[in-house]
Amino acid sequence: MKKLFRVWLMILFVLTLVFPASLSVIENDKVEASEVEADEATELEVSRSTFSLTETRTVEVQADLGGEVDLDELEFEFGGKSLSEWRKWSGGSNYDGEQFINVIDGPAFVNDTTEVEATIEFGLPYDRTNLSNRTIRTQYQQFIGDYELAVVNPDNGEKAAADVELNVYDEFLFYDQIKPAIDQVFEEADAANDRYLEYQSLGETVEGRDLHFVIMAEDENAVDQYLNETLPQALEDPKSLIEEIENETIGDYQVPIWFNNIHPDEVEGVDAQVELLEKFALEDEITFNVDKEGEERTETLDMDEVLDDVIFLYMFTSNPDGRVANTRANANGFDLNRDNHYQTQVETQQVNQAIAEWTPLSFVDMHGYVDGFLIEPTTPPHNPNYEYDLLYDNMIEQAHSMGQSGVGNSDFDSYFIPALDWEDGWDDMTPAYTATFAMLHGSLGHTVEVPSLGQDGYDAMVGAGLGSTLYVTENKDELYKDQLETFKRGVNGEDNRAVDEYFVNAEGESIGRQRGDYDNFFPDYYVIPTDDKNQKNNLEAYKMVDYLLRNGVKVEELISNTNVNGTMYPEGTFVVPMNQAKRGLANAMLYEGENVSDWNSMYDPVVVNFPALRGFDIHEIREPGVFANTAEIESVAMPTGEVIGNSPKQVLKNSNNDTIKLVNELLQNGIAVEKAIETKAGINKGDFIVSTEDLQQYKDNYYFESKPAGTTQHLETETLEQPKVAVDGSSQLAFSLRDLGFELVEQADADVIISDGENFDPDSLSGKSFVGIGVNALSAVEDSGELPGFNFDNTRNGHEGLFKAKVNDHLLTSGYEEDELLYSTSGAWITSVPEDAEVLATFHDSDDFYVAGWWPGHEAAQGQTLAFTQKLEDTTITLFANDLAFRAHTEHSYRFLANSIFSSESEEDPEEEIESVADMMNLVESYKETGEFADGQTARSLSVHLVAVNTYEEKELYEKVIKHLEGFKLLLNHQKKENLISDKAYNALKAGANYLIEQRQ
């Protein structure tokens, strides 16, 4: 058997010589280990078994291959390949540089034995210890894994082998390894001590992966006491807790420390948490180094004492799909660290709900890779909804503790704090980031950025976690009192002027909170109406209430009609009382926002304003105590549609995004939908008309506003077809269109192309429509010369803001009011349009047209064109200078997109004149002859219905006529779904049947 094995080894060796493998052709596929298992060969003794992509390491190997061995002929292999094939990265996806695994000593015999020894050096495949370069970051993980390290005697095929590991740093874990690592800690802790550990999945990602979450505490009672006693008291009666701390009657209590990662390709943030869990769960004492300006000392965390003070919470990563794909974005293409406030993605919804439920005192979000070891707090401008005077000093001190421990635990020699070292450009004006959103809960929220991807970055991040814990345990009472003071100000409705010095303009001058004519920055109430008179978008109103509840904000409901300042609010109206602990979070989402255009730089868009960007009405009330008859609510059920009356048809008002989703589902199911193209008899252009019977089937699935159509006999309509839409540009735009129910296809198969990208090919648009949004699309169209007379200007892509707009009456602006608040992040405006173009909207021409955001130079957009549409010979081009689907938050603008899409793919009633059942019979026969039916049975089945209609028509039996015409339509829908009838015949016959029904009303 051994002889046969050697023969096979020789054959394999010859094959590897004839067909050598090379890293240069592997590209992004993970390197596989040799098919020959180590346990089938002689054991290779190794001095170490783990090697690193970011640290040069040597290994001494030793084996007895038996008998005489020609040392010069020995071959060394790694992963089944000769060491000469393991070559350094040379740029792009190429690996044809120098060899990076080398024998640097030996091979040689050990004394006078047959044992052979050698020293192998594993160098740096990327010639660097820091793999944060974005090109490298997309590739290095393909080389992580288990390999066979082997010495082969080619004379007889004898091999000595050992299994070893190659990693980016020793502690790196793929997503699938995280839960087993957690389980291992739980198992060891269960045997070692009685510390409380609890695993939860906070939910599932877009692709169905678990959001791993771990709670660690002294015991279960500590968790129960905090969640059920301490936190409720803190939110409802913070003053009493402050007094208990000050008079030392509070007794034992714990506060939560939350560790977090949201960008999983910034890998240390995940793995450092696993080590922190292991240390805190298993060790009795944790000793680590602290480096304060070159002076080193050691600190020790006594874990029994630590757990007397804190509860640890580990959110290993909010983006498991990104951990698997090695991407910053989630599976929908969203940077989740720009979605904590918008919460359009399922991951941020679930994680932030847990943050609200726990309301942690300390929050550390682990990131990389800026130039330098960065630890927040940030530069100004600061969001005025923070109680910054209660946060700043504590956060500065905690940042120092994290930095000193991070430097002491790694080879980094320094750290910096943006608030102390930079003037601007790293701000917390937006609560988009996980740490800044946590600050709205009163948390000490830090983003921590290590500068390098590798062992040093990992070690520094672990050190930062230890330092943050040290600071909390040493200062727990004072830190918690400041968080409680945040809640107390909210409960008391206090706008404390101590915050004002932290809110400055670009000149560094204190401007405080912008209170306008009021003494208090915060209103007494926000009212979210739900009645037709006061609310333009009831669906978004309810969604806002759900959002607030999910994020820990108290919402109440009127239990009786209440008149406030001449406005009657009916029972069921939602009220957000602002005398509550989380009032800062509520206000940050609901208030108008700030104009910070005087600043030279801003890290990210700052406008949140849910009412304007989601498109619903709120009322700000500044009169305390006017809502006495309310009841607090814990949840809210989304509203659904209601079909009123028994008329054959219903008008669907083009008033919310659910209506667009409904129309798309109706079209997908072959149900006829018409669109009004004129305003008449209480029906507005752009409204949709469907049969009452069809609509009844969907009333529980969507929220829509409908009314009986009455007669539409003299109303000009178009029959909609299911549009095929192509997207050029961002994944966020594609997400928004899919969310609206549109079918996304390749450009060659599309009816309409929606673009926020840089591509525009006029030659490919024949028979298609093009809708361009934002500065990239404007630039591409202008450069093409396809629209003579079109020009635009802009300040800079990324300049953003909320502004007043004038919306013209047009089919593409259906559902919008003349005066609207709209949004842009492209800093662009249109300066001239083609001679026969139709202007859809303009920037308002008033001096106060700009409302909020960061857009230096926005004054030039005043009164300029915002959007227009241009019909050409065989296409239509529609351009918007602003953003209609920015990060899926600008839902109020979605219907501009939907209107443009539906207008690109609709047909007027058939050219054939339908005046009688006989005309319809002739039309059926005509389509039969031209092959528009897949088989003769299709035509015969339709004809049976028409014969019955004609028979009953002679007898003037109205109900039976209508019944057979509706049956005709149902059969038509079925045959369309089964592809038995062409689109042309389907549309003509469906429209004809609708016409006949109207004639008999």
Task: Summarize the topology.
Blueprint: H1 2-18, E1 42-43, E2 45-46, E3 50-52, E4 57-64, E5 75-78, E6 81-82, E7 101-109, E8 115-122, H2 134-137, E9 145-153, E10 158-167, H3 175-192, E11 196-204, E12 210-217, H4 220-236, H5 238-246, E13 255-260, H6 268-282, E14 285-292, E15 295-302, H7 303-309, E16 310-315, H8 320-325, H9 346-358, E17 362-368, E18 374-375, E19 379-382, H10 388-408, H11 418-421, E20 427-428, H12 434-439, E21 444-450, H13 455-474, H14 476-492, E22 525-528, H15 538-550, E23 555-558, E24 562-564, E25 567-569, E26 574-577, H16 583-590, H17 610-615, E27 619-621, E28 630-633, E29 649-652, H18 657-668, E30 674-676, E31 688-691, H19 692-696, E32 706-708, E33 717-720, E34 724-728, H20 731-739, E35 743-744, E36 752-755, E37 769-773, H21 774-784, E38 791-794, E39 800-807, E40 819-824, E41 828-832, E42 838-843, E43 850-854, E44 865-871, E45 876-880, H22 894-904, E46 906-908, H23 917-929, H24 936-955, H25 958-977, H26 983-999
